[in-house]
Amino acid sequence: MTTETQDTAPAAQHTALEDAQGFFAGTMLCAFGLQMLTAMGLVTGQTAGLAVILSYVTGLSFGVLFFLVNLPFYVLALRRMGLTFTLKTFGCVAALSVFSEIMARLVVFERLDPWLGAVVFGLMTGTGLLILFRHGGSLGGVGILALYVQDRFGWRAGWVQLGFDLCLFAAAFAVIPPLMVVQSLVGAVVINLVIAVNHRRDRYVAT
Question: 188: closest CA among 99, 108, 123?
Answer without folding.
Answer: 123
